[in-house]
């Protein structure tokens, strides 16, 4: 774990390898990207996450150079590659790109696909490099096969090998694991990350899957409507979300409405400290696992109205007086109560986050 | 911290060094960066196509004084009326023949249906001037058909009994209808195959009787497809020069030809050509109008073929007879007549040197024109691929207008600027080099190849564009992120992935060039004959020597694209 998370302090000291500065892009009447900024340290792997249509793929295309920004600039290793009056063609950027559909050339064999980007090397050198990459990624046995004969997992690995063969300084991956089955995608993701770490290749992985985002990279950048809502390590962004949207993106929350008064928001489940000004509307966001069974009388009285068994955990639906929506409590192992029972519930320390009401 | 740096250290310096130098050198402006070469190529191509049309307008406007009133009073009204009657008649013929045969073979099971499915395309292989040539002899009062009828009915001589003369407007409409209906057959059959199944079943569940399905569902459904097919057939009709001439129908095409060839009046020919373009414009607009809602008609789910319903014995035989009629009249009869005549001639005289030379000339001209057309079509389609947008879409549309222009119109349009250019070259050469070049461009056949290219450019542009559209954009982006530039992507990705589209486009263009008559007649260098012009010459003179052989060769070559079409149009396996 410590190895996977270079602390944020170090990142700010190292010169950024990639710096995206205030980049905007419009498509017709829609603002796909609105002044997006993002930096990437050498060797860093960052996950770009967000709902579909939030602009994450558009950003990736701008960095790769298959599209040009309307405003802002992109700097790679100190040289501006896109900005006002400047545009470096994608083939001159040395940025690898892995596509969601893998984009393998159907008329070329696996070996020719992987060697596609090595044209500028001498023939023998290109062959040697291809063989090396194939061995490293584990696709050496498929050299003479054509893409349509490969399984999804094999295609993914060939696409990875092809993108890595020219030794790019940065690898962009657009939903690289979304076309794979659940179990397979976990394994392939672990292998892919290990290879990237091993080669020291920096990478931006676009995903719409919150869990993948938390697990895969050094840092997570969450995008919302063409802007970066929050950047930070997975733990950071999960534990200290800067907005209700970010909080609810990773895990569904119980919401309690209230009003700030004297540095506190009073709710049927207790009062929570806040920095909001007096009289301002507030939403208290309580994660499902932060609801706990309390000693009778210590918490709020709740009636269990339903339960869902999920294997290692069980979720109980609770009705609490004064709260319009049923609350959901997530408990490990066996549930302490059945539908119809009455419980006393409380919020664990630091389990509540207070945001201004929308 | 050290951990991060050491891990990142090895690739960084090397890559930076590699990265900076090319980047510093190759900073480019954003505007116009991708695919500039292709856009320039596409613009030049569009210009090449537009020049004849523009030259036509200019020449017509320049026309000598007093000519226009003459044309308006004596030539154009009659020719326009004849053309309009011909178009109307052929339009009705091809709609009925094409639509009914298409519905019969897609929705019904009857003896021979599988054969008719492809055989109904065969008349495409017989150019209009060849079918007219064949029937002129076949149906001659002293010919085989009328002779047999007289023998059957017991008449002694043509004076006692003869069929109405084929050399008439009616004869021309019937013959053209029987060879041009496949355009409607092809388009409406494709519509029935891909669209009809669900809708027919839905209409049956809503109480439509079997016999009403054609009128209430199939025909309205096929209307846009029929419009496309009919407009193609009518463009061929406008383009025709041989059939109407042999059968004595004085159309606009014929008047352009005579105005230029017998009266050497280029301005007059250009003026008639403009009238003809007005006809084309009406056709194109009518087609657009009929198709305006077509995009709503394509269903999103994968199409299912209609299950053919079995016809009873009587109805089945009637259906087979109805399908057999156009195949026999439009292909089998003329083709076997030509084969028999050619065989007779071959036994009598062998292969003449003339016909061999003409075959070589035809193939050489067609080959040069095909290569040029393919190259230009590739440029236009690639520009649209590399830089999609309004400009390239406009260039693409411009480059295809030649297809709607009849051969004579293209020829006059090409003749105007090239004759001027030839004069200029000749004068410059005489002034500077003391050599007379004469008609360098027209005399060498370059003008003819230019006309072929203008006229048939729409084929490769469309077919390559369709081929490109099946290549996902991510392949382009992948290739570029792997260090390939726009030209490299074209060479290493687009070209190898569109070989089959190119091949079929090449085949179509080649065969169309070989069959082309009107432009060839007007633009061929002196003393140069192709197979088509040879046939025209003999038919016009009324001599029947090597013509059957030339016609047979053209029909045989013309069958190649029909075979390709038949394979493409086959039902997809379930």
UniProtKB/TrEMBL annotation, chain A:
GO biological process: quaternary ammonium group transport
Residue intervals of the ABC transporter domain: 18-250
MF-aspect GO terms: ABC-type ferric iron transporter activity; ATP binding; ATP hydrolysis activity
Keyword entries, A-Z: ATP-binding, Cell membrane, Ion transport, Iron, Iron transport, Membrane, Nucleotide-binding, Transport
SMART domains with a match to the protein in the record: AAA
One Gene Ontology cellular component: ATP-binding cassette (ABC) transporter complex
Domain of life: Bacteria
PANTHER family for the chain: SPERMIDINE/PUTRESCINE IMPORT ATP-BINDING PROTEIN POTA (PTHR42781), SPERMIDINE_PUTRESCINE IMPORT ATP-BINDING PROTEIN POTA (PTHR42781:SF4)
Family: Belongs to the ABC transporter superfamily.
Name of this protein: Iron(III) transport system ATP-binding protein
UniProt source species: Camelimonas lactis
Automatic annotation (TrEMBL), chain B:
InterPro entries: MetI-like, MetI-like_sf
Membrane topology recorded in Swiss-Prot or TrEMBL: Multi-pass membrane protein
Membership in a protein family: Belongs to the binding-protein-dependent transport system permease family.
Organism: Camelimonas lactis
Annotated ABC transmembrane type-1 domain residues: 80-285, 359-565
Protein name: Iron(III) transport system permease protein
CDD domains named among the record's database cross-references: TM_PBP2
GO CC annotation: plasma membrane
């Amino acid at each position: 774990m410590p190895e996977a998370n270079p602390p944020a302090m170090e990142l700010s000291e190292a010169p950024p390898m990639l710096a995206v500065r205030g980049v905007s892009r419009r498509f017709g009447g829609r603002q796909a990207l609105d002044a997006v900024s993002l930096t990437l340290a050498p060797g860093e792997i960052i996950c770009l996450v967000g709902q579909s249509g939030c602009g994450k793929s558009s950003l990736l295309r701008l960095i790769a150079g298959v599209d040009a920004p309307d405003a802002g600039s992109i700097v790679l290793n100190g040289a501006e590659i896109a900005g006002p009056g400047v545009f470096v063609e994608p083939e001159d950027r040395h940025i690898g790109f892995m596509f969601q559909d893998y984009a393998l050339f159907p008329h070329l064999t696996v070996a020719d696909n992987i060697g596609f980007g090595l044209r500028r090397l001498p023939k023998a050198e290109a062959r040697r490099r291809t063989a090396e990459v194939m061995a490293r990624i584990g696709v050496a046995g498929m050299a003479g096969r054509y893409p349509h004969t490969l399984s999804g997992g094999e295609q993914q690995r060939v696409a990875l090998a092809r993108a890595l063969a020219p030794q790019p300084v940065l690898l962009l991956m657009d939903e690289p694991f979304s076309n794979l089955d659940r179990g397979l995608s976990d394994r392939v993701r672990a292998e892919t990350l290990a290879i990237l770490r091993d080669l020291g290749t920096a990478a931006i992985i676009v995903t719409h899957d919150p869990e993948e985002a938390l697990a895969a990279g050094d840092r997570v950048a969450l995008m919302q409507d063409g802007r970066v809502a929050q950047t930070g390590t997975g733990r950071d962004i999960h534990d200290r979300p800067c907005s209700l949207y970010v909080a609810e993106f990773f895990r569904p929350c119980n919401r309690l409405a209230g009003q700030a008064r004297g540095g506190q928001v009073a709710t049927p489940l207790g009062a929570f400290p806040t920095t909001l000004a007096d009289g301002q509307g507030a939403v208290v966001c309580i994660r499902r696992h932060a609801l706990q069974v309390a000693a009778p009388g210590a918490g709020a009285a709740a009636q269990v109205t339903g339960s869902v068994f999920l294997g290692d955990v069980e979720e109980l639906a609770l009705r609490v007086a004064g709260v319009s929506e049923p609350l959901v409590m997530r408990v490990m192992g066996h549930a302490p109560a059945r539908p119809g029972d009455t419980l006393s519930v409380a919020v664990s320390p630091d389990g509540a986050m207070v945001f201004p009401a929308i | 911290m050290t951990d991060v740096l050491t891990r990142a250290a090895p690739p960084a310096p090397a890559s930076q060094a590699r990265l900076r130098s090319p980047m510093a050198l190759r900073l480019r402006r954003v505007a116009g960066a991708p695919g500039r070469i292709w856009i320039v190529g596409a613009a030049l191509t569009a210009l090449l196509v537009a020049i004849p049309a523009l030259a036509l307008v200019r020449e017509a406007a320049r026309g000598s004084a007093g000519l226009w009133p003459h044309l308006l009073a004596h030539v154009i009204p009659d020719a326009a009326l004849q053309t309009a009657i011909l178009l109307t008649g052929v339009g009705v013929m091809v709609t009925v023949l094409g639509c009914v045969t298409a519905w019969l073979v897609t929705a019904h099971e009857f003896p021979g249906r599988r054969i008719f499915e492809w055989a109904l395309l065969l008349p495409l292989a017989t150019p209009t001037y060849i079918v007219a040539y064949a029937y002129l002899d076949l149906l001659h009062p002293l010919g085989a058909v009328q002779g047999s009828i007289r023998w059957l009915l017991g008449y002694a001589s043509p004076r006692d009994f003869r069929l109405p003369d084929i050399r008439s407007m009616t004869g021309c409409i019937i013959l053209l209808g029987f060879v041009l209906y496949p355009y409607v057959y092809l388009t409406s059959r494709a519509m029935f195959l891909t669209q009809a199944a669900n809708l027919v079943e839905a209409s049956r569940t809503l109480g439509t009787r079997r016999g009403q399905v054609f009128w209430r569902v199939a025909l309205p459904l096929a209307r846009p497809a029929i419009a496309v097919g009919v407009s193609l057939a009518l463009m061929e009709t406008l383009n025709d020069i041989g059939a109407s001439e042999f059968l004595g129908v004085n159309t606009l095409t014929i008047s352009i030809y005579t105005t230029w060839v017998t009266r050497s009046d280029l301005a007059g020919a250009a003026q008639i050509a403009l009238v003809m373009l007005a006809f084309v414009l009406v056709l194109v607009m009518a087609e657009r109008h009929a198709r305006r809602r077509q995009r709503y008609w394509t269903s999103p789910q994968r199409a299912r073929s209609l299950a053919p319903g079995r016809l009873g014995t009587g109805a089945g035989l009637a259906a087979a007879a109805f399908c057999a009629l156009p195949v026999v009249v439009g292909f089998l009869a003329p083709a076997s007549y030509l084969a028999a005549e050619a065989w007779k001639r071959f036994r009598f005289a062998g292969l003449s040197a003339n016909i061999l030379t003409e075959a070589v000339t035809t193939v050489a001209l067609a080959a040069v024109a095909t290569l040029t057309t393919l190259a230009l079509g590739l440029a236009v389609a690639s520009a649209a691929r590399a830089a999609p947008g309004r400009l390239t879409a406009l260039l693409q549309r411009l480059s295809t207008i030649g297809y709607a222009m009849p051969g004579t119109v293209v020829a006059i349009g090409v003749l105007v600027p090239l004759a001027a250019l030839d004069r200029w070259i000749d004068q410059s050469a005489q002034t500077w080099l003391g050599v007379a070049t004469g008609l360098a461009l027209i005399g060498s056949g370059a003008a003819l190849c230019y006309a072929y290219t203008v006229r048939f450019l729409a084929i490769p542009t469309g077919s390559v564009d369709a081929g490109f559209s099946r290549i996902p954009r991510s392949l382009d982006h992948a290739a570029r992120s792997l260090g390939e530039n726009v030209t490299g992507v074209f060479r290493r990705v687009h070209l190898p992935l569109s070989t089959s589209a190119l091949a079929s486009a090449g085949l179509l263009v080649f065969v169309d060039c070989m069959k082309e008559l009107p432009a060839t007649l007007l633009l061929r260098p002196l003393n140069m004959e192709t197979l088509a012009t040879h046939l025209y010459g003999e038919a016009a003179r009324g001599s029947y020597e090597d013509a059957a052989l030339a016609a047979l060769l053209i029909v045989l070559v013309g069958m190649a694209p029909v075979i390709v079409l038949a394979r493409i149009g086959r039902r997809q396996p379930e």
